[in-house]
Write a structure and sequence with these properties.
There is one protein chain. This protein is α+β, with helices and mostly antiparallel strands. It has a single domain, classed as Glutaredoxin. 33% of the residues lie in helices and 16% in strands. The protein contains seven helices and six strands, in the order ααβααβββαββαα. The strands form two sheets. A four-stranded mixed sheet has the order 2-1-5-6, sandwiched between helices. A two-stranded antiparallel ribbon has the order 3-4. A hairpin with a 5-residue loop joins strand 3 and strand 4. The protein is globular.
């Protein structure tokens, strides 16, 4: 049997270079509901009274986060089909946060921390959210309405590792001591980050 130089080299490399570690086993693909949204079963089902939701989160030792999505949003779809299929991402979030999902153009009523009752659409407008997906992380002691209750927000799609680290940033109070929250500086700096590689 004859071996070519290329075959010998390939055999040598296959023996010398270890195979990459298998990626985390992915969760089942999400199913879109009739309303055009994905609804993970671990998202909080709520009456959308934010004071009550925050109190429930604090009682469970967790923080409160609101995700704003819309029908037909490709980036929202990617969050569900990619980011939220990684069990390491989901486990990190579920163990530390209560997540509420609303529709950027929805009509369900939300009671803000200041007692104002608004539709989902009007609440998003009050928060200055015009694009999706948007992640809003509430202060542990939120009292004022609108943006005054928000500790930090991120708008747009983040790949899985920066996405889960957005939660880590808030959970670790990475913005503490910063004049303006700077997630990218925190992500590049020292400290505990979630690694998916």
């Amino acid at each position: 049997m004859k071996f070519t130089t290329a075959a010998v080299a390939a055999l040598f490399l296959s023996l010398a270079v270890p195979a990459p570690a298998p990626a985390a086993e992915m969760l089942p693909a999400p199913q879109m509901a009739d309303d055009g949204f994905y609804h993970p079963d671990w998202f909080l089902v709520s009456f959308l009274d934010l004071k009550e939701d925050l109190a429930d989160a604090r009682k469970a030792g967790k923080q409160l986060m609101l995700t704003i999505e819309q029908r037909g949003c490709g980036a929202c779809k990617r969050v569900h089909e990619v980011n939220l299929r990684d069990p390491r991402v989901v486990d990190y979030i579920r163990s530390r946060f209560h997540v509420i999902q609303i529709d950027l153009y929805g009509s369900r009523e939300i009671t803000d921390f200041d007692g104002q009752v608004l539709s989902e659409k009007d609440y998003a407008r009050k928060l200055g959210v015009r694009a999706t997906p948007a992640m809003l992380f509430y202060k542990d002691d939120a009292t004022g309405g609108g943006g005054d209750a928000v500790a930090w927000k991120a708008v747009g799609y983040l790949e899985p590792e920066p996405y889960v680290n957005a939660f880590a940033y808030v959970h670790q109070r990475g913005f503490t001591g910063q004049k303006e929250p700077d997630f990218l500086a925190w992500l590049k700096g020292p400290g505990e980050k979630v690694r998916l590689q």
